[in-house]
C-alpha cells in the first residue's frame, strides 16, 4: 500500500481518496487570438511587365507553379517578376565580363607559350589561318568567329 502526502502533512492511500480530495485540474490556458493571414495565391496570376520590358513566357511558366506552391499573393509574385529583368541583366553582364577575361587569358597564354608564341607567334598564327582557309567549313569559321577564337588567329603581331 503506497501512501502519498496531502496538504495537511498526513499520508493517505491514493485508492481511498475522495473525489473532492483530488488535486484541482490545471486552469485552462486562454486561447491566443487567431492572427489574420493574408490571402494566398490567386486562382490565376495576372502579371504585368515592367516598363519597357516584355514578359518572358517561358520563365513565367516555370515560375507560376513555384509561386503557387509558396502561396505567394499576386503582389508578392509581381515583385519577383519585376526584379527578374534586373537580376538577369546582372548575370548576363557577369557572363560577358567572364568571357572577355577568358579570351584575353587565352591570347596571353598563346603569346607566352614557348612552342607557339613569342618569336614564332606570327608564323604559327599564319599557318593556323591558312589551315582554316583551306580546310575549314563555313560552320567552323562561324563557330570560331562566335567564340572569338578566330580573332586570336587574326591577331598576329
How many distinct beta strands? 2
Determine the N-to-C terminus distance.
107 Å
Rounded average pLDDT:
82
The helicity comes to 40-55%
Q: Strand arrangement, largest sheet?
A: 1-2
What is the succession of H and E elements? EEHHHHH
Contiguous uncertain segments of 5+ residues: none
The shape is elongated
Textual characterization of the structure:
It is a single chain. Among the domains are: 40-102, no CATH class; 113-157, no CATH class. The model has no long low-confidence stretch (mean pLDDT 82). The chain has a two-stranded antiparallel ribbon. It contains 5 helices and 2 strands; from the N terminus they run ββααααα. A hairpin with a 5-residue loop joins strand 1 (4-5) and strand 2. It is elongated. The protein has helices spanning 57-69, 74-112, 121-135, 138-146, 149-153, and strands spanning 4-5, 11-12. Helix content is 52%, strand content 3%. Residues 21-31 have a biased composition (Pro residues). It comes from Salmonella enterica I. Residues 1-56 are annotated as: Disordered.
Topology record:
Elements: E1 4-5, E2 11-12, H1 57-69, H2 74-112, H3 121-135, H4 138-146, H5 149-153
Antiparallel strand pairs: 1-2
Keywords:
157 residues; mainly alpha; two-stranded antiparallel ribbon; Peptidase
Brief write-up:
Residues 1-56 are annotated as: Disordered. The chain is mostly helical and 157 residues long. It is built from 5 helices and 2 strands.
Amino acid at each position: 500500500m503506497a501512501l502519498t502526502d496531502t496538504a495537511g502533512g498526513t499520508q493517505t492511500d491514493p485508492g481511498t481518496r475522495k473525489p473532492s480530495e483530488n488535486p484541482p485540474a490545471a486552469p485552462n490556458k486562454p486561447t491566443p487570438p487567431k492572427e489574420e493571414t493574408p490571402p494566398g495565391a490567386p486562382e490565376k496570376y495576372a502579371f504585368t511587365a515592367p516598363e519597357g520590358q516584355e514578359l518572358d513566357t517561358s520563365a513565367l511558366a516555370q515560375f507560376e507553379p513555384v509561386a503557387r506552391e509558396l502561396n505567394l499573393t499576386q503582389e508578392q509574385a509581381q515583385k519577383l517578376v519585376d526584379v527578374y529583368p534586373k537580376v538577369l541583366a546582372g548575370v548576363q553582364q557577369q557572363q560577358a565580363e567572364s568571357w572577355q577575361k577568358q579570351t584575353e587569358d587565352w591570347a596571353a597564354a598563346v603569346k607566352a607559350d614557348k612552342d607557339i608564341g613569342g618569336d614564332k607567334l606570327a608564323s604559327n598564327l599564319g599557318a593556323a589561318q591558312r589551315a582554316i582557309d583551306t580546310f575549314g567549313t563555313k560552320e567552323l569559321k562561324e563557330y570560331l568567329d562566335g567564340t572569338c577564337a578566330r580573332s586570336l588567329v587574326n591577331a598576329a603581331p
